[in-house]
Each structure stands twice: as C-alpha cells, then as structure tokens.
Amino acid sequence: MTKQAALAGVRQYLADGHFEQDLRRRVAFRSDSQDPTHADELPRYLLEEIQPLLQRLGFDCHMLANPEAGGPFLIATRLEDPALHTVLSYGHGDVVPGYAEQWRAGLNPWQLTLEGERWYGRGTADNKGQHSINLTALEQVLKARDGRLGFNLKLLFEMGEEAGSPGCASCARSSANCCGPMCSSPPTAHG
C-alpha cells in the first residue's frame, strides 16, 4: 500500500502542475558554474531552492565552501537511527553555459518553455529536472511511510559538476564526518 500511495502522490505532483512550477523556478536560476558573472547564483540556488525543501523533509543541512575554486557544496543528513545503514546520494544544481544567442526564436535558456511533450530550459534534464523528481519521490515515500525511510540518508549537492567538479573529492575527504563510511575508498576525480 505504501508504494501505491507514494506513486499516487508523485502522479498528483505532476498532474497538478507543481513539478512544472518547481522546475520553472529552478531553471530561472542562472547557475552556470563556468560564468563568473553569475557566481552568486550558485550558493543562492542551494540556499533558496534545495536547503528549505530538505529541511522540511527532516534533513540537517550544511553549506561548505569549495576548498578549490568553484561553487559550494550542500551536505544534507537525515539520521533515523545510527544502527541503520546509510545511503549517500548525489546531485548538482549547476548547468552548462546558456548560449542564449544559439537558441531559436521563442526559447530562452533561463525560462522553462513547454512545446507539446518537450520542455526547454537549462537544467530541465541535467540536473535540475532529475533532482526535482528525485526529491519529490523522496517526499512522497516519507509521506507514505509515516515519515520514516528505514535507513539514513545523506545527500551531496555540488555546484561545479559542469566545470569538472573542482573540489568535490577534496570536500568528500575533508568532510568524512559528513560523508561518513560511504567514502571508505579514496574518492576519484569523478567522485
């Protein structure tokens, strides 16, 4: 029954326009990690879009400055019981450059545009759309399971993946207490 309830909640989120509304707001952030003129958008995306949602879902959130040049990190922890297994999940909120001049008339990389079954806007698939869906699914599972997952969950969000993830491995190494035993093998340049 809980699986069906969670799926019904996700379907409702999509049908009532909340997914579109959330994604529209998120695409509007010019979170281009390769454009220093929009560097202020990187922490703002995490602080205004991701952290409040995670806190509402019971996560303890910590913003970390990048130990190298690049966007910040958000580590969110939802601890149900120290005896339970912990799952580490990853996402990023930065996008590739907008290249607005290369978009056809009527499209803007920083505005979500729907044309039939196609959705246009920077980050609609990589990665704002994906983590929007993942976070919605998480929220619906929590609702269906009376606020319990049955495991601990840690989320790592970075704002530099599209620029090669500068500082991600260093952040994971220096934040072993945040990332915990999931980082038992040395992080690689690819995470």
Structural notes for this entry:
The strands form two sheets. A four-stranded mixed β-sheet has the order 1-2-6-3, covered by helices on one side. The chain has a two-stranded antiparallel sheet with strand order 4-5. It has helices spanning 2-15, 18-27, 41-56, 128-144, 168-174, 176-179; strands at residues 60-64, 73-78, 86-92, 113-115, 118-120, 152-158. Helix content is 36%, strand content 16%. The chain is flat. The protein has six helices and six strands; from the N terminus they run αααβββββαβαα. The chain has one domain (2-183): Zn peptidases (Aminopeptidase, 3-Layer(aba) Sandwich). The model is unreliable at 182-188 (pLDDT under 50). The chain is of the alpha+beta class.
Characteristics:
four-stranded mixed sheet; 6 helices; 16% strand; 6 strands; 191 residues; alpha+beta; Aminopeptidase
In short:
With 191 residues, this protein is an alpha+beta fold.
Number of strand elements:
6
Give the spatial strand order of the biggest sheet.
Answer: 1-2-6-3
**Distance from first to last alpha carbon:** 36 Å
CA-based shape: flat
Low-confidence stretches: 182-188
Query: What is the chains' assembly state?
Result: single chain
Q: In sequence order, what are the helices and strands, one letter per element?
A: HHHEEEEEHEHH
Task: Count up the helices.
Answer: 6
Could you tell me the strand content as a percent range?
15-25%
| CATH evolutionary superfamily | Zn peptidases
The name of the CATH topology is Aminopeptidase
Per-chain topology:
Elements: H1 2-15, H2 18-27, H3 41-56, E1 60-64, E2 73-78, E3 86-92, E4 113-115, E5 118-120, H4 128-144, E6 152-158, H5 168-174, H6 176-179
Parallel strand pairs: 3-6
Antiparallel strand pairs: 1-2, 2-6, 4-5
